[in-house]
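[C-ALPHA CELLS]
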Amino acid sequence: MKQPKKIFMRIVLFTEMMAFGYFYLFGSNGISMLHHQIDVVVGLEKNITQLKNEVTQLEEEIYKWETDDFYKEKIAREQLQMARKGDELFYIGT
C-alpha cells in the first residue's frame, strides 16, 4: 500500500520541479526575460551616451555662434554660399 503512495508523491514532486524549472527559465519574470531586459538597458545606455555627445556638440556650436564671428562667416560662406562684397566667385560647372 505504501508503494503506490510513494510513487504518486515522487511524480507530484517531479512535476512541481519541472514546472518550477520552466517558470524559472522561461516565465514572464524568468532568466530569459532578465537577459532580454539587460540587452534593452545596454541599448538604451548606448543611446543616452550618443545623445549626450550630440548635446555637447550642439552646445559647442551654439557657443561658437554666440562668440566667434569667424565661425559665422565660415558657415555663411560654406553652407549658405554667401560672399562678401568684392569677392571673386568661381563657378565650376559639372
Summary: Residues 2-78 form one domain. The chain has a mean pLDDT of 87. Residues 27 and 45 are 26 Å apart (CA to CA). The radius of gyration is 34 Å.
